[in-house]
Amino acid sequence: MCPPDCEFISIPHNSNLSAGLMFELLPVDLTYEDYADLSAEYERLIEITQHKGESECFKGCDPLYSTDEACGFEKLPFDNIMGARLYSLPTLTDPNPKSFVRYGLKQGLLYLVDPEDYNLPDSNDYDTRFLGFNPFKYGMIGSTDTHLGTAGAVAENNYKGNTAQGGALSQAEGLPDYAGNNPGGLAVLWADENSRDGLFDAMKRREAYATSGPRITLRFFGMWADPGSPLLDMCGTADFAETGYINGVPMGDDLPSIPVSPDALPTFAVYAHKDEGVPGNPDVLSTQLQKIQIIKGWVDESGPHENVYTINPDSQPHDTGAIVDTNTCETIGTGYDELCRVWQDPDFNPDYPAFYYVRVLENPTCRWTTWLCKDVDPYTTGLFGQKKCKDGYEECCDPEYPQTIQERAWSSPIWYTP
Length: 418
Prior knowledge:
The protein is of the alpha+beta class. The chain folds into two domains: 175 residues, no CATH class; 162 residues, no CATH class. Helices cover 14% and strands 24% of the residues. The protein contains eight helices and 20 strands. The strands form six sheets. Strands 4, 5, 9, 10, 14, 19 and 20 form a seven-stranded antiparallel beta sheet that branches. Strands 7-6-8-13 form a four-stranded antiparallel beta sheet, with helices on one face. A three-stranded mixed beta sheet has the order 2-1-3, with no helix packed on it. The two termini are 32 Å apart.
């Protein structure tokens, strides 16, 4: 064990390439309980996005996958780091649904409940071992991890690749990276002061959020409030954050188990502001917001569940019709500079543990591959006069390859434990 004056946290890295092992308790010389206790103490944050893909959730038909449409964002077609390194058989194993953060958050809730009380069936899908505490209470951060020494260089329209060598070593030209990779994301902290200690304390209490690159401002508070409470009007006040701190808890914290009154409901205040961009700097683009969502996970007698609530105010519908001209990367349509909503869970059951986190989505924009492909002619003439794609530009010639993305931000969760 560490000496008393040794302060640290451990941030799990790139869980999407963990082959389904990230959220399993695999003690070597410890009991399961001791291993889980160490995880709860020191693994305070998790990297939900970086240049080797996004790790929030995975969309599919298997019961462990999600039906959430937004889970298709920046996914690699591998389940392990060797696949991400070699991009070839036999390393091309499909992503494992147990590698994604939302799975881990639900697994953490399961460790809180006694399977005998809940009559949970034995399953290979989840571990129903009873610990009585949650070892997987992760706050969210993003990273670049591009090995270039260029912190914060996350612009889709100016991606330089993963390493200084650019694309494949055998290519004289072409895209600067494997097309499944991306420029990476950012970590944001709400700290009391801009100091080493202040930033560390913010990470330890999980008052952090991630973005896929844009400098989106995001606030998220949880509290108890009656249906007619004046707290429901927080978005109309100038002291939104102060009200949140006084009456509730910020992202990364726990709701008090006992509500303030019998009629009170879990109430969540969300504020998001778009990336303003940098005037005159084309590497930092400003895009309007499209919607804010709250993702809820909970456990009941039949097992773990999830739901996605889009909570835009009525005056700001999320179906804006915004599109992208992929020939020019011009964005077309409307969006919002800011979105704010105070929302109460209509499906709350006080008997079931739950987590809630926010996801903010921008209007669609061009992906980095589209920015590069639109300015080159990827075709050449073959030996027999046929049109063929140049080496290194194969994705530019493939009309099925994703051309647009929806950049986003993810808050750290707020947890409820009965």
